[in-house]
Every structure is written in C-alpha cells, then in structure tokens.
Amino acid sequence: MTQDIDRLDAIVAMAPVIPVLLFDDPESAVEIGRALVRGGLPVLEITLRTPAALDCLTACKAIEGAVVGAGTVLDIDQLTAAVACGAEFLVSPGASPKLIHAAEGSPVPLLPGVATAGEAMTLAEHGYRRMKFFPAEPAGGAEYLKALSSPLPHLRFCPTGGITLEKAPKYLALPNVMCVGGSWVVPADAVKARDWARIETLAREAAALARP
Ligand SMILES: O=C[C@H](O)COP(=O)(O)O
Ligand SMILES: CC(=O)C(=O)O
C-alpha cells in the first residue's frame, strides 16, 4: 500500500525519540526494551544488523506497552521476515526501487531514509510523506533539514544519525520534524554492565524533550 501516514503518525506521536537498537540476544533485548518503556520511550526500532535481531524483535513483542519495529530493512527478504515476526513498522537507511516496490505489498508502514531533496521528491512521487533523514549530522544537520522545509513543506522527517540529547532540541524545534532517532539512550557500556537503571534514566531524559 501507499505509506500509511495515519498509522506512522500515531506511532511517532508516542515519544519524541525512537531508540535505534542493536541487540545480540533476546534476554537482554527484553531487559533493555522494558527499561526504555519504563523511561517513557515505547517505540523500539530493532535494527536487522545482528544475527539475533529477528529473535530479539519477536521477544520484545511481549513487552507491555512497547511498539516494536524493524530497522535497517534493506530488501524484500528482510521486509517479509520482519513482518512475519510482528514488526509494527519498518525503517530503512535509504530507499531502493526494489525496496519501495516490496513495501507496496507490506501490511505495515515503511519509514524510508533520505539524505537529499531529490531522494525525498522521488519518494513523494510514490506517495511517501514521512521519511527518515539519515545520516542526519553528517548529511548537514538541522540547518540542512530546515532548508528542505520551504520547498517541501508537505514532508516530515525523523532525523537520525549522530544525534544526542544535547543535539535533539534543535531538530525537534523544526516544523518538518516529527521525532528524532538515536542510539545514545542505549550505550554499549551500560548494556555490557547490564545497567538497566541507567538506560531507564537516559530514556526518561529523552522522553522529556519538548515535542515537535
Ligand atoms: O546507524 C545509525 C543509527 O541510525 C543511529 O545512529 P546513531 O548511532 O548515530 O544514533
Ligand atoms: C539507519 C537506519 O535508518 C536504519 O538502519 O534503518
């Protein structure tokens, strides 16, 4: 189907930050997911970058209050597998013609990545109105994204890539930003130490950011 904008808007309205997650095992994935939900970040983007990612996605579906999606969806096989595991949304770092074609048959919405006005216009021709701006900081940051809002006012973005608690407000203040994504709320050292309380604290700080 064409992008289900109402469904995506309902998901991103749940929190100002979508944690971008790399999970190695389902048990710690559930602990981290629970800490994020407790801290006020219920929308979880589990990237398909690890061998255990789909098992982790399946396990996290059991977390009360969580809305679990798949990130780094690069092709039709990953899209199909993520949907079969119960992903409620899909995210990609960019958009290839084959992925866009595959998403037309998907029962859950895709948030595709763009880094330029031309890429955004191509996706808009396919009915997309919600996109990831990736990689946000290296691609030009908030100033760049702000510049896109004049010629492309009908498009809204979730910038991701290099964003921190300190950098998030300048994105969230833009008219064409609906939320931000980032991995800063789940630092590798906290995961290694199984410090779920720290992850909950980081989530709470992120959840308190002013809504766009
Ligand atoms: O690949 C990067 C993810 O999209 C998140 O980026 P980040 O680790 O800079 O927050
Ligand atoms: C970076 C990103 O958007 C993804 O991995 O899906």
Automatic annotation (TrEMBL):
Catalysis: reaction(s): 2-dehydro-3-deoxy-6-phospho-D-gluconate = D-glyceraldehyde 3-phosphate + pyruvate
PROSITE patterns with a match to the protein in the record: ALDOLASE_KDPG_KHG_1 (PS00159), ALDOLASE_KDPG_KHG_2 (PS00160)
UniProt keyword list: Carbohydrate metabolism, Lyase, Schiff base
Cross-referenced Gene3D superfamilies: Aldolase class I
InterPro entries membership: Aldlse_KDPG_KHG, Aldolase_TIM, KDPG/KHG_AS_1, KDPG/KHG_AS_2
Domain of life: Bacteria
UniProt cross-references to Pfam families, sorted A to Z: Aldolase
A GO term, aspect molecular function: 2-dehydro-3-deoxy-phosphogluconate aldolase activity
Keyword Transmembrane: no
EC annotation from Swiss-Prot or TrEMBL: 4.1.2.14
Pathway: Carbohydrate acid metabolism; 2-dehydro-3-deoxy-D-gluconate degradation; D-glyceraldehyde 3-phosphate and pyruvate from 2-dehydro-3-deoxy-D-gluconate: step 2/2
Family that this chain belongs to: Belongs to the KHG/KDPG aldolase family.
NCBIfam families attached to this UniProt entry: eda (TIGR01182), PRK05718.1 (NF004325)
Subunit structure: Homotrimer.
Name of the protein this chain belongs to: 2-dehydro-3-deoxy-phosphogluconate aldolase
Native organism: Prosthecodimorpha staleyi
